[in-house]
């Protein structure tokens, strides 16, 4: 499949993660074996028994829209479009070799207009064109395969980044940023609004909030496969003119990529979760620094209570830090005053944290301080000493 004329549309962070995962000595053998035991006829049987295959005779307008999207991506593809009864807005691809099928939920066909449906179809074609099916993220998150925690986080990061790459193909097919924004709004809210300007203002304002603060549910035990909708919208807004200019120019190669834009979006993606792949807190040193800071704030009132200890253990389990957390907590409890003095001395020696990383660390420390109730004076003072020691 020759996709060279679309390569510069691909989100650079996603491409880098994709290459890293495929070259991983721990992962590549697994990727090579996945799916070999599932015959093609089983997939076809599933689709034919649960979905309606869209033909020109059945739904001519939808069929023509699908063919139009194939023309815009300008790649020789072999696949069909299916509609599956589902009240949830959902679409996915099923691939086998060079063949694929796109399955779209009936609720999307009912509630989305023509250009919004084109965005959904183009997005799924993006997954096909960039080979995203080669790494089945859901399979690894199901727990059926035991792989290193670091790789799980890397797969999660790649999966989110892959949505941004696919969105750009969605925009290429729908040809309208407003339609893409409206599709995003419906996906996230379930509402259909006629005021395009209000929708765009909503998504833009939420992107600015995401950019300014860490994601509120950062300590969730769930591994996410999709980035926040406001980030996806902003990524499209920044590249919209270039992407739409390629419509109808099948053989035209975009000579430049989106280096500065991709760097900006990557920074926000990583910043929206303290443990996103690429974060300083994914390293052993960063993880140790974070745990010590959390313990320091927790024991500022003289003890490490059950809620605070549980918070740190959950964080350690979510992040996959290579730390002996039992030993660290035991040392803290054995001599709280000595522990606190040692932490501040160690923090003063840290010179590598950026201002943004200090802010994120303090935000997490604030969360442990309120996990057992409102902030008290001792905890506020502790946060201030951590900030001062780190130059914040």
Order of helices and strands: HHHEHEEEHHHHHHHHHHHHHH
Return Rg in Å: 24 Å
Tell me the overall shape: elongated
| Average pLDDT reading | 84
Question: Biggest β-sheet, characterized?
Answer: 4 strands, mixed
Label the structural class: mainly alpha
Low-confidence stretches: 214-222
Number of DSSP-assigned strands: 4
Strand order of the largest sheet: 1-2-4-3
- β content, as a range? 5-15%
Q: Helix fraction?
A: 55-70%
Number of helices: 18
For the termini, the CA-CA separation is 51 Å
Give your account of this protein's structure.
The protein is mainly alpha-helical and 392 residues long. Helix content is 60%, strand content 6%. The chain is built from 18 helices and 4 strands. The protein has helices at 12-22, 28-33, 40-50, 60-73, 106-111, 114-129, 137-141, 149-174, 177-189, 196-212, 229-245, 259-271, 284-298, 306-319, 325-334, 336-348, 355-369, 377-389; strands spanning 51-53, 78-84, 91-96, 99-105. A 4-stranded mixed beta sheet has the order 1-2-4-3, sandwiched between helices. Strand 3 (91-96) and strand 4 form a beta hairpin. Helix 8 (149-174) packs across helix 11. The longest helix has 26 residues, at 149-174. The radius of gyration is 24 Å and the shape is elongated. The model is unreliable at 214-222 (pLDDT under 50).
Which features characterize this protein?
392 residues, elongated, 6% strand, four-stranded mixed beta sheet
């Amino acid at each position: 499949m020759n996709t060279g004329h679309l390569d510069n549309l691909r989100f650079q962070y996603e491409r880098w993660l994709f290459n890293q995962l495929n070259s991983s000595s721990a992962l590549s053998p697994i990727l090579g074996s996945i799916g070999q035991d599932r015959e093609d006829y089983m997939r076809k049987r599933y689709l034919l028994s649960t979905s309606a295959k869209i033909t020109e005779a059945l739904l001519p307008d939808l069929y023509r829209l699908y063919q139009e999207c194939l023309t815009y991506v300008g790649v020789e593809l072999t696949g069909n479009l299916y509609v599956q009864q589902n009240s949830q807005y959902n679409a996915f691809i099923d691939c086998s070799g060079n063949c694929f099928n796109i399955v779209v939920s009936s609720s999307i066909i009912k509630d989305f207009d023509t250009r919004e449906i084109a965005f959904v179809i183009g997005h799924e074609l993006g997954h096909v064109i960039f080979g995203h099916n080669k790494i089945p993220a859901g399979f690894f998150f199901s727990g059926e395969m035991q792989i290193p925690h670091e790789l799980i986080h890397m797969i999660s990061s790649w999966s989110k980044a892959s949505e941004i790459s696919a969105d750009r193909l969605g925009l290429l097919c729908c040809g309208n940023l407003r339609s893409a924004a409206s599709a995003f709004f419906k996906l996230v809210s379930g509402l259909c609004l006629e005021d395009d300007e209000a929708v765009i203002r909503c998504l833009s304002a939420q992107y600015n909030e995401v950019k300014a603060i860490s994601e509120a549910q950062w300590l969730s035990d769930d591994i996410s496969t999709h980035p926040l909708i406001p980030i996806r919208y902003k990524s499209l807004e920044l590249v919209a003119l270039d992407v739409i200019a390629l419509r109808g120019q099948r053989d035209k190669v975009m000579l430049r990529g989106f280096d500065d834009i991709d760097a900006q979006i990557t920074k926000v993606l990583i910043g929206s979760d303290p443990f996103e792949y690429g974060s300083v807190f994914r390293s052993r040193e960063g993880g140790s620094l974070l745990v010590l800071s959390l313990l320091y704030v927790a024991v500022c009132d003289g003890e490490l209570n059950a809620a605070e200890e549980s918070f740190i253990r959950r964080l350690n389990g979510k992040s996959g830090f290579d730390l002996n957390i039992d030993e660290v907590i035991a040392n803290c409890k054995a001599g709280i005053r000595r522990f606190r003095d040692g932490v501040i001395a160690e923090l003063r020696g840290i010179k590598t944290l950026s201002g943004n990383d200090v802010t994120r660390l303090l935000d997490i420390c604030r969360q442990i301080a309120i996990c057992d109730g409102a902030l008290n004076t001792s905890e506020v003072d502790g946060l201030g000493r951590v900030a001062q020691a780190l130059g914040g």
